[in-house]
Amino acid sequence: MTTRHQPDPAEIAVIGHALHSVAVEMGAALRRTAFSPNIKERRDYSSAVFSADGDLIAMGDDMPVHLGSMPMSVAAVLADLRLENGDVALLNDPYRGGTHLPDITMVAPVFFPGRNRAAFYIANRAHHADVGGMYPGSMGPCREIAQEGIRIPPVKLMRAGKMDSQLLATILANVRTPREREGDLTAQLGACRIGATRMLELVTRFGHARLLNGIRAMLDGSERLMQNVLASLPAGQWQAEDFLDDDGVISGPIAIRVNIRNDSKRRRAIVDFAGTDPQVPGSINAVYAITWSAVFYVFRCLLPPGAIATAGLMRPVKVLAPEGSIVNARPPAAVAGGNVETSQRIVDTLMRALAPALPDRIPAASSGTMNNLTIGGIDPRNGQSYTYYETIAGGHGASPQSPGASGHHAHMTNSLNTPVEALEYAYPFRMIRYALRPNSGGAGKHCGGDGIVRELELLGDAQVTLLADRRKTQPWGLHGGNSGAAGHTTIVRDNIEEELPGKCTRELKPSTRIRIESPGGGAWGKSSS
């Protein structure tokens, strides 16, 4: 009778870093070959590796809102489709593990020669700057998901290595920028091929049985690591609430409430969002995958630096979210803003709840919004349709140890601002101002980080859509620190300024300027002066 090889900690670390490198290389390949500035410049994508059972075993250094929810997309694919060698599945349905419609996920199996069951799955997700719908950029103030763009259930884009040209044609016929979409989809396919090739190389390097034993040890080790974190927390429960300004249709505030119950003896926790407000007519509804992803992110932040992130981390944590609420919306709710805005407020609420349990670790609130700006129209330079999408950074909340960083994307987004040169080259805009927003971070012992002022001028007719928050509420401080400044969006035409609500769309003329002032972060501690 043979015994299973038991990997030692060093071997587990080597295997974990090798798997992580596969996900990182997939992301690099996607970034290098993508067509759109949103993926190429802003890095609005994520990559991950999964076991034969669909368990997350490695992820890139990408976007938390993508990575935590991607396992549910993989599960939806495995439930609906039998993937054969050379197949690649495609989906973006938020109610099947997706986030919002612009985030398109690809899932591909990895087969060993002569075997009829996939040994691994690799997946990537990228935010496409337009997937149809009522508004350019597919991020407008919609009332139902059918208005937000083309909704794709799990389907096979590639079959036995051959493209389903009819499916691709159907997708491209429903978007405003088909050439750019085809280029980005092709880049995602290329990243899948890179991932599959590298996984086969790892099998050759380690041996299949040894690699699987290492993966099992990683999953179990991640579970023990989270159990140790929960055991180190005091037993008890902590509650918090925070608010979204509004949904762009009805006035707010709209509440998110959470109760975290920690059983330190059993080393388990329950995160319960009972009492959160019901889903709303506007597009800030979050599906369950988003809420689970936010919890995954926050609890991962409690781990020691360098901890390997796998599906095992969440085995000791249960997430309860009432159906029909803004943290577990049901069809046909619009969800574009749930991914980008509500996810941030869920994180804020979780952090606020944990602050009494971890007073020396939890920071004040960061900007709390992704400041989503989408612009679309006809480029007067070439007569072609364009769609521009960007999230704009703000200030980080201060920590017990240091001030908050200024002008950084925080929490559920890990993207970049589009460089000025790339923006002016790709779109009919002129950048007027791009700077930190002075004194927008809260004052305190440790000040919050400052937000950003980003002002651009339109060079042609355009439809401009804003999906942002923290315009009425402010990023809160902790332990006596002041709140960060709320955000503002202003349009300037004919030297007349008009402040826009956080969630709106406008038809604007050439020479109109759009100025976004993103929120600053909250401060930690009272100022000594």
Automatic annotation (TrEMBL):
One GO MF annotation is: 5-oxoprolinase (ATP-hydrolyzing) activity
Q: What are the Gly residues biased-composition ranges?
A: 519-529
> Residue ranges of the Hydantoinase B/oxoprolinase domain?
8-526
Q: What GO cellular component term, any one, is given? A: cytosol
In the record, biological process GO terms are: glutathione metabolic process
InterPro entries hit by this protein: Hydantoinase_B (IPR003692), Oxoprolinase-like (IPR045079)
The record ties this protein, via PANTHER family, to: 5-OXOPROLINASE RELATED (PTHR11365), HYPOTHETICAL 5-OXOPROLINASE (EUROFUNG)-RELATED (PTHR11365:SF23)
Name of the protein this chain belongs to: Hydantoinase B/oxoprolinase family protein
